[in-house]
Specification:
- This protein has nine helices and 15 strands.
- By secondary structure, the protein is of the alpha+beta class.
- α1 (2-15) packs across α4 (60-74).
- The longest helix has 22 residues, at 77-98.
Amino acid sequence: MINLSYTILTFLYLITPCLSAQDFYKLLGVKRSASQKEIKKAYRAKSLEFHPDKNKEEGAAEKFAEIAYAYEVLTDENKKEVYDRHGEEGLKQHESNNRGGGGGFDDIFSHFGFNFGGQRRQRERSTPNVDIPLRVSLQQLYLGDVLEVEYIRQTLCVNWEECMKNNQECQGPGVKVRMQQIAPGFVQQVQQRDDRCVAPGKMWSNNCRACPKGQTQPEKIDLTIDLNKGMYPGEAVTFEGVADEKPGMTAGDLNFVIVQTGHEFFHRDGDHLYVTMEIPLVDALTGFSHEFTHLDGHKFKVDVTGVTECDHVMRVAGKGMPRRGGHDHYGDLFITFDVDFPDTLTDQQKKEIRKVLGGGNSKKDEL
């Protein structure tokens, strides 16, 4: 009889992983915080109650095998840790990997960032990044600048860990997965959204005394923004891990995105600057010299000796924006000349112009 019971126990033990998911702590009738001594005491009582030699009721043998398996897991430090974090399905995959197996639930649970058998690294989730427009002038981007700003973010309650409770259905922040039996011996994995889940195996306890104001609280921080010379519009100054905090997640990044304001005189395109200058007709014909004041206040002179056509573009090397990655390297300045023609001329002016330019009276071609 003893050998027969042992054979039945061995057979049932082997098929236990194929049964629907069980709560091992509930099987033994102990709390999750139970000590090893309490687990052993509970196992002895349950094994005597459902031993096949003493209990002839239908299902007793299967129950006995489940109790034996639960006891084996909860008294093995490594298996207990896997079970507490990932549940029975995670434990099955762990044991399969240790036997040289692969695939299966590893592929399913990898979606939630689990790491079974060291085959995949756990994906660390973070809170959303925050982008804040930073309006700066062209002059600030030419010279570089240092800005002091204040930012208010949400930080974790100091005692937030005291408000966490175990819940094996939680598979990550906001993700709850439960096993639903759809037929005898068949279970289906169902994923749900549950904001109380804050980490794998951890759920937030509502109305927790340790955090009466909730999971987070506002915090004002002082930040120093370094604007490098020549930074581009759309470029971001990033502070890593400074966005809002949440239990079970790393803080995202805070990005100050540069928005360049317009300038009354210069226009920027990449590393180059552009300006349009209006000149009178006499300067366009005879040449001229003009002094410009740059963004940093320094002055430079542009000399034009020849005749300047309308919309002519002149390139002045090295008078653009500072180039990134180089010392004293600058883009160019492009000057577009807009010739201002007089609205009217007197007869004497017309005569003098014709005399100077050598033109005579124009004759109409005969048709």
